[in-house]
Specification:
With 113 residues, the protein is α+β, with helices and mostly antiparallel strands. Helix content is 19%, strand content 35%. The chain is built from two helices and eight strands; from the N terminus they run βββαββββαβ.
């Protein structure tokens, strides 16, 4: 199992549902790349409402205005060094969106195996 320092970092990548790398959704490609690079963990969250730099139009999951480009957030936790290296690797494939990194205090990181 990978060890994770208590003083870790959280990388958040805000993208759209329709963003792709080839024919693969960008959020899926990021998670697969994170696993391939051995990062500690990744989670994809689907937003129910939002807007961003690429569009000032509100994207929402309301039935009467169902958007086909909902906001997605990919969260990754690891050391800041590993996340910085990972970001350099994936950055060319993020054509539109927002990326943030913040300190994260890791309290528990374990598997049940």
């Amino acid at each position: 199992m990978t060890m994770l320092p208590e003083d870790g970092s959280l990388l958040r990548i805000f993208i759209g549902e329709s963003d792709k790398v080839g024919s693969t959704p960008l959020y899926e490609w990021i998670v697969l790349m994170a696993r391939k690079q051995g990062l500690a963990g990744a989670t994809v969250l689907r937003g129910v409402m939002g807007f961003g730099a690429n569009t000032r139009k509100i994207r929402t999951f309301k039935i009467e205005r169902l958007s086909n480009d909902m906001p997605f957030v990919v969260e990754l936790v690891d050391s800041s060094e590993n996340l910085e290296a990972f970001l350099k690797l994936i950055e060319p494939n993020i054509r539109a969106g927002l990326v943030t990194m913040e300190k994260a205090r890791v309290h528990i990181y374990r598997s049940d195996n």
